[in-house]
Amino acid sequence: MPTIDDLLIYGILDYLINALIYLALALPFFLVFWTFRNRRFRHRRIQERQRSDRTLIRHELKHSAITLFVFAVVDVSIYAAYAAGYTRLYTDVGDYGWGYFAVSVVMMILLHDAWFYFTHRYVMHHPKLFRLVHSVHHRSVDPSPFAAFSFHPLEAVIETGVYVVFAFLFPVNLWALYVWQVFQMAFNVIGHLGYEIYPKGFNSHWLFKWKTPSLHHNLHHSHFSGNYGLYFTWWDRVLGTEFKDYHDRYDRLQHRISEHREGPSDGRSLP
After folding, report:
1. pLDDT of residue 270
2. Is the model's pLDDT at 266 over the cut of 60?
3. pLDDT band for position 48 (cuts 50, 70, 90)
C-alpha cells in the first residue's frame, strides 16, 4: 500500500503533468487565434465581436487551475484504490492485447460523451445548480481555449465521475486512460476555441456530421441552452436539443470564411 507521502508525491506529479498537457494544448491555440494571429483569422471567429477581456481570461485560468487540482485529488484516490486491488485498471497491455486496448479507448470516448450530455443537460442546467455551480463555466459567453476546464469545484467533481466509472466498470489499461485524457482535453479545447477550424461541408458529411465542430458548442455558450453534446451530435439530435438553425449558422460562417479568407481584419488582441 502506498504511504501518505507516496500519495502526496503522486498527486503533485499528476497535477503538474495534467497542467503541462493542458497548457501544451490550450496555449498554442490561444496565442495563435486570440493573440498574435487574431487579425489573420478574424474571418474564422464564430462570434464576430469579441466579448471576452483580460478579466475573463484570468477567471478561466483560475478555475482551470482549481479543476486540475480536483482532478488530481480524484486521480490520487483512484490510484490508492488501484494499489489496494479494488479497481479494474491494469498495466500490462499483453493481459488483453492491443485490439482490446484500442476498443477500450473508443468505449471511454463514447461513455464520456454520454456522461457529459446527461450530467450537463439534467444536472448542470438544473435551475438551482446552474445558478450556484454551472454559471462559473457559462461566464465565458465568448469562450477562449482556457474555458475548457473553467469549472466550479463541484462541477469538476461531477466531471471526474466518469473516471471512477472507467476504473471500476471494465478493464482499462493505464496508458489507454492517458490516451483518452489527452483526447478529451484536445477536443474540449477545440470546442471552446471561439474560432471555427473545421472545413466547409463538415456538418453535412455522412460521417463527420456526427462530430461537433467548434460552432456547435459555441452556440451553447452564447445561448445558455441547447447543443449539450461534447464530442458528437447524436444525443442532441435524438433528444431534440440541437439548435434548429445550427446547420444554417455553420453554412453562413463557412461562407464568410470563404469570402474573407484573405481580407483585412480589425480584430483586437489580448496582451
Report:
1. 41
2. no
3. confident
Provide the grid cell at 20. Answer: 503541462
Is the overall model pTM greater than 0.85, yes or no?
yes
CA 256/CA 258 separation, integer angstroms: 5
Mean pLDDT within 74-101 = 96
Domain boundaries, the chain: 4-260
Measure the CA–CA gap between 184 and 148, rounded to whole angstroms: 10
What residue type is 84 in one-letter code? A
| C-alpha distances out from residue 202 to 22, 81, 197, 205, 230, Å | 26, 42, 10, 5, 16
Query: In 10 A of CB 263, how many CB atoms?
Result: 9
CB 232 within 8 A of CB 10: no
Beta strand extents in 3-156 (DSSP E only): 89-90
Contact between 189 and 27 (Cβ < 8 Å):
no
The string over 58-89, giving b where at least 16 C-beta atoms fall within 10 Å of a residue's C-beta and e elsewhere, is ebbbebbebbbbbbbbbbbbbbbebeeeebeb
pLDDT band at 93 (very low <50, low <70, confident <90, very high): very high
Question: Among 88, 117, 68, which Cα is nearest to 232's?
Answer: 117
